[in-house]
Write a structure and sequence with these properties.
eight-stranded antiparallel barrel, DUF7064, DUF7064 domain-containing protein, nine-stranded antiparallel β-sheet, 322 residues, 22 strands, globular, AttH-like fold
Amino acid sequence: MVKIVDHGTWIPREEDEGCHPAGAEPLWNESVYLDFTADDGSVAGYVRLGLYPNWNRAWYWACLVGRDRPTVLLADDHAPLPGPDLTVRGEGHRAAYRATHEVTVPMRSFRLTLDAAAVPVVDDPARAYDDPGGAETTLLGFDLEWTTVGGVYPYGFLPRYEIPCEVAGTIRAGGEEIAFSGHGERDHSWGERDWWQTSWLWSSGRLDDGTFFHGMRANAGVELPWPCFTVPPGGEVGHRAGFTASSVFGADGLPAGSRLLVPGLAMSAVPVAFAPVAMTSPDGRTARFPRALCRFETEDGRSGHGWTEWHQPPGWRGHAWG
């Protein structure tokens, strides 16, 4: 039996692994994230599928990065809404693609496949915010499975849960085929999400002793017990709260690094490779989303890799970042 943290508030059920009825809010969204990272940071990536039924579209993002690798990035914010089986087809940035997303065992395992042609190769991360017309392109393919490690962590104040995982399968990039084995996190959320209002930081990874960790905080103008967890080697996810973070940004808005504190675990996060995307609101405002593969260094001498995101809506530089 998979452990699910009991906050005494909202607890996810196996049926929550499926899709949910849309709310009335124009920006109601249902989101699935799937991260993966080799233990040594040599290769990593993520996929996000966001469903916007009241906006009549889906967002589909998929990327491959790594230490000493170029960023390969598919970002399609005008994909057709998929059916209940969550098979997505689209043409984003000249990349014809088909992707499947399947909960193979609720709360235990999830399989992703992607077959995409002519995906842009981005040499300069800042260019990923713009249309990379004329950029080099390549094939990109995933056949990966996420297997739960340690249990399921739900946020206590909104319908969202995070699952630390082992990840294994096959990656294709151009003529290269990679037998992948590493770690990652998957999450699932639903409800209204206004990407053009609030900035936030989200981070997850695994250290070299096998410890998983996760933390998230939003710059909401009020301090809350922001959600976080750790999973010790061979242990279970436990209820924690009180994640804090502070960040430094370059003139281009890309983060140079962050200090993260999960209670009892302090560390630095330094970007290794970026896969940024930009998104435009229905009324034309632009938000930027510099997500990055990071190397983590703890104060007690451990290290590891994972993903961090620093969401940047319009006016984000005026927000308090920790």
